[in-house]
Amino acid sequence: MLLAGLGWKLLLDAFEAARAAIPPAQWLEVRYEDILADPRSQVTAMLEFLGLRWTPKFEAGFSRYTFATGRREAFRRDLNPGQLALLENSLAEYLQCYGYAALGAGMQR
Prior knowledge:
109 residues; flat
């Protein structure tokens, strides 16, 4: 699990480098947990950002999907307290920077 956390840090560093190289009007940040919390609103924002419309055909496709929140915090069930502490120590700076609560406290923003 620590390797997954390190991978997450590498991805966030790459996102920050990309964001710095792209004009702000061309960058949209989309978070997985936000999509799970309100899929329709988040997908609407993505379509608008891309200059696309929510058409009846798109609605037909979208409505076939279910956005299950059960895996959002599965790592809390899958890891023991020692593993969670190791992951949290590794990610502490990033969690704080991106507005996440400590891993032991729940993934709140």
